[in-house]
Specification:
Blueprint: H1 3-6, H2 10-18, E1 22-31, E2 36-48, E3 52-54, H3 60-65, H4 69-87, E4 94-98, H5 101-104, H6 109-119, E5 127-132, H7 140-151, E6 157-160, H8 167-170, E7 179-181, H9 185-194
Parallel strand pairs: 2-4, 4-5, 5-6, 6-7
Antiparallel strand pairs: 1-2, 2-3
Length: 202
């Protein structure tokens, strides 16, 4: 299902942001070594009043195409911090939010993050920012500057990598990431190896 298929408009976005039609689901993030939950990842869902529940694949690209993904990021940031504070999470737990490529070039975002952390009295070290990897066409210095600005908020950064890490990631200096986020065959390969079995030939 795409945004075109459900015929979303900017008015839908306005209504969703103003009337809290966007809801958060929190997915536990488990530490592989001891199966302990360390934080909860905020995932956004859209409960459209006319179309019903919309999955992310039906609307995230629409926010991006309309140049409004930054508004969604700020909504998720504020809502997730508010929910975490309201839930009274133990200090052993944190939360994480996903950033988009458009967010990476938003020079005002680091200040917004710091302001929201102060507003909700939430420690920066308990908010992980999950960052996408830039296109290799973007200068490495530009990439490093964007990641460094986010790191200055005090929040741990997780770099999302599809498949094998590319050469650009290996050249970041300083390396500001606390984690590498990956999935698919790479995760299955690690599980196999950790259990003493053969790796996957993928």
């Amino acid at each position: 299902m795409s945004a075109q298929a459900v015929r979303l408009t900017d008015i839908d976005i306005d209504n969703a942001l103003q009337n809290a039609h966007l809801e958060l689901a929190f997915q536990p993030v488990v530490r592989f070594s001891d199966n302990v939950i360390i934080r909860y990842e905020a995932l956004v869902r859209w409960e459209h009043p006319g179309l019903g529940p919309l999955p992310p694949g039906a609307f995230l690209s629409f926010f991006e195409s309309r140049g409004r993904i930054g508004e969604l990021t700020r909504y998720v940031l504020q809502s997730s911090l508010s929910a975490a504070r309201h839930a009274g999470l133990d200090e052993d737990f944190g939360i994480s939010i996903n950033l988009s490529l458009a967010d990476m070039s938003d020079k005002s975002l680091p200040d917004t993050i710091s302001e929201q952390l102060d507003k909700h009295d939430w420690p920066a070290e308990r908010l992980t920012l999950e960052c996408p990897l830039f296109s290799p066409d973007i200068a490495l210095s530009v990439q490093a500057e964007s990641y460094a600005a986010l790191a200055e908020t005090g929040c741990p950064l997780a770099l999302e990598v599809r498949g094998r890490a590319n050469d650009a990631m290996k050249r970041f200096d300083p390396f500001v990431f606390a984690e590498i986020k990956t999935g698919g065959p790479a995760v299955l390969r690690q599980v196999k190896l950790s259990r003493g079995g053969p790796g996957l030939n993928t």
